[in-house]
Each structure stands twice: as C-alpha cells, then as structure tokens.
Amino acid sequence: MKKIPVFLFLLSCTFVNAQWNKHIFSKDPIINLENFQKQKIHFGFFMGFNGFDFKIDYKVNEPDVLVKRTTGFNVGLVANWRLQEYLDLRFEPGLYYTKRDLYFPSSYFPGAATTSDRLREVNSTYIHFPLLLKFSSERTGNVRPYLLGGGSLTLNLSSNAKSLDDNAEGRFRVKSWNPNYEVGLGIDIFSEYFIFSPSIRGVFGINDELIRDKDPNSPWTGTIESMKSRAIFINFTFH
C-alpha cells in the first residue's frame, strides 16, 4: 500500500512532462478534445492518496497529544455540471482509507501509564461527499489550471459512535457525520482521448467530532476542548 502513492505520483509526473513537452513547447500544438468541456454534464473517476491529521484544542495548558499520520488511499467518482465557461459545479463522492495514531502524554494519567494506555489507534474508513465550485482559467494549448472550493460531509464508518464502551475499555470514539470546508487547485491536461487532472486539496473539519468518555476526568478526553479532522488530498482524475 505504501508504494501505491509513490507509483501514482511518478506516473502523473511522467504524463504531465510528456504532455507539457508535446503540447506546450511545440510551435503548433494540436488542440485535443476542444469541445469536451462544453458539455453540460460529464463524468469521470479519481484515484489518489491522503494524509489525515487532528487539530486539537485543550481546556488547560497541558502537553499536546502527539498525532502520527500515515498515508491513506482514495478512490471515487466525479460528476461535473458546467454552469458557464469558467465555472463548474462538481460532486466527487469517494471512499477514503486512513490511519492516525494518538500518543497521550504520561502526565495525563494519575498513575503509571502503560504503552497500551497511552496509544490509541484511529483507523478510519470515510465516505466523503464534497460539493465544489471549480473556477477555471483560460485554456492555453492543452492545459487549463483551476481552483476548487466548497463544502463536504464525511461519514466515518469506523467511528465507534454507537459503542457503549469508551477509552476505559480501549475504545476510542468519534462522531459518525462531520461537515468540512475545502480549498484546492489543479490542472486539466487534455490528451488525445481523455482529460487527466492532478489536484491537491486541503480539507478542514468544522465541528468537534470527539465523543467524551463517561468519566468527565478521563485522561483521554477530559482535557480536550475540541478535536477536528483536517487532511490533504492528492487526487488524479480522469474524464
């Protein structure tokens, strides 16, 4: 799994370089798929990878919880509705896999804390529902940069929100549904048969998603004011 993001990144770099040399620096570039984006609606799919983190605010001045991120994998569909020449509305439902390890400082615990007490592994499987506006620039040859922005809802299938157990039994819990806002940028590269669009996007949770333990003085949740997910998505889209 760890090799997949590297492979996708190298593949996209190779493709971009080939298209750039062929269509940007040539004296008379062949214009590919000239009328494709003039369609009212078109569809596509994407693959990519992600890095999720937590933004944690605290009630008291205590050492921070250490969040260790890993690289996750994304896959999903794209529906694009053309509003006007430079503006599109996009719906990009996708499945996102990720993992975060939370290391709680030993000072949070009244007695001696074991490694299993201090560590909480947060494995997440998200279904992500973003609704985005795409602001495109003028097309230059077979390249067209764009900006993205909008909102999204995320369903965490691994939230443990309905579990009656909490951290005292080793069960870390977060809310199932969470709203976000998103901003990003990308570039459409028109090949002879399809459009290839690498993009990067920041995703920022709006609401506190942590479910508190039954004990109000819990060392895992008692000192935390809010915990919000944030992430970077790197997607490779094909239309």
How would you characterize this protein structure?
The protein has 239 residues and is mostly beta strands. The chain has a single domain, classed as Porin. It is built from two helices and ten strands; from the N terminus they run αβββββαβββββ. The chain has helices at residues 3-23, 115-118; strands spanning 41-58, 66-69, 71-84, 87-91, 94-103, 119-136, 143-156, 177-190, 195-205, 224-238. Strands 1, 2, 3, 4, 5, 6, 7, 8, 9 and 10 form a ten-stranded antiparallel beta sheet that branches.
Please outline the helices and strands.
Blueprint: H1 3-23, E1 41-58, E2 66-69, E3 71-84, E4 87-91, E5 94-103, H2 115-118, E6 119-136, E7 143-156, E8 177-190, E9 195-205, E10 224-238
Antiparallel strand pairs: 1-3, 1-10, 2-5, 3-4, 3-5, 4-6, 5-6, 6-7, 7-8, 8-9, 9-10
Shape: elongated
CATH class identity: Mainly Beta
Major sheet summary line: 10 strands, antiparallel
- Helix- and strand-based class? mainly beta
The share of residues in helices is 10-25%
Tell me the CATH topology: Porin
Low-confidence stretches: none
The tally of beta strands, per DSSP, is 10
Mean pLDDT: 87
Order of helices and strands: HEEEEEHEEEEE
What's this entry about, in short?
By secondary structure, the protein is mainly beta. It is 10% helix and 51% strand.
